[in-house]
Automatic annotation (TrEMBL):
Name of the molecule in the record: Muconolactone Delta-isomerase
This enzyme's EC code(s): 5.3.3.4
InterPro entries to which the protein is assigned, alphabetical: Dimeric_a/b-barrel, MLI_dom, Muconolactone_d_Isoase
Keyword Isomerase: yes
Subunit composition and interactions: Homodecamer.
């Protein structure tokens, strides 16, 4: 099952830089592991925003929820999920 996911990150302004750096470093490692596993298929920065558009390929809504809620940045993100279906004109 494919899902388009938008993540908007908003870290508290008073978060100490070392704490923010640690969360971002763990987030990067987790994101890269999921990309290597094939579950996080695309990851693009939204130009000019601390946000990304991603495509996930997972078995179920529950699996996606588990992956997203385990992101180290999850407490600091607004996440919008859009389920995707095959387009009838797609040649892919
Ligand atoms: O930077 C972001 O968009 C948030 C998050 C998603 C992947 C990652 O490494 O951080």
């Amino acid at each position: 099952m494919l899902f388009l996911v938008r993540m908007d990150v908003s870290l508290p302004h008073d978060m100490p830089p070392a704490v923010a750096d640690d969360i971002k470093s763990r987030e990067k490692a987790y994101a890269q592991d999921l990309q290597r596993s094939g579950k996080w298929v695309h990851l693009y920065r939204v130009v000019g925003e601390y946000a990304n558009y991603s495509v996930f390929d997972v078995e179920s809504n529950d699996e996606l929820h588990g992956l997203l809620s385990s992101l180290p940045l999850f407490p600091y993100m607004k996440i919008k999920v859009t389920p995707l279906a095959r387009h009838p004109s797609s040649i892919a």
